[in-house]
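Moderator note: this is an archived Q&A kept for reference. The question asked for a predicted structure of one protein chain; the sequence and the answer are reproduced below.
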Amino acid sequence: VYLIRHAESDENRRQQSFYRSFGRIGKLALPTKEDVAASVELLDVKAQIDSDVSDVGRRQIEQVGSKLRKDNFVAEKGIQLVAHSPLKRARQTAEGMLGCVTSRPSVTLEEDISSAGKRAATVNRIVELPALAERTPIEILPINHDAYTSRIAGFEKWLREQPEDVIAIVGHSQYFKNMLGLSFKFGNCDVWEVRFDPSISICQRSVRTDVITMERKEKLAKIKEKFERSRKSPISFDESSCGSEASNFDDLDLPRGWSNLTKLYGYNKTDDR
């Protein structure tokens, strides 16, 4: 299975502007007008849930997509099935990087530039899966936690039932992080290879337990980090330390039949300069 996180979205851009603004205020400096304007856009909640890729996102798609095309990635890896989230940022990434996206006849190109659909010649099927949508703010609430873990369990059950052996999935960072029980998120346009054993039984309860256990570990780690910092011994985790291309994470103990996680491609900001 190949897991691909979508390119930077307008939502990601606005959130980064918001964090930069607060960072500058914390240092008694005024935020930039651009960051303030982008932060205000966060008030449009609907636009955050399903936003297009940003200008930076389009550069990410072009850079990593060029690497995939140069390596003839889709054909060489023998990808038979592409599944993507219904959110526009994932659809646009699937089209730009894999040349595959489902069509949306009732949606105009102005509403979604990927709505016409596209399929690489060597790919047999393309499907859009609502279960792959990113975790919503309401699903963070304890009362709705089961709805989120049920979606993950439903996706894994779907994956077990597919006749294809090689599948590419285009989705979201928090979803992949929770599904695989990771302590870090994939970067925008990262391409990861992972094995999935369909013989392992899956139920919503096991997914729920795995996600809750990992979230508790993260909370404890953050408490420890704050404690160590208070002793002037800072502990930091750099998300970029997940590695450059072809980084192997075989030693990770992944849940429910997932194993052999390896990063194959990633966006390099310096290459755009």
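Archived answer notes: Confidence is low (pLDDT under 50) at residues 233-244.
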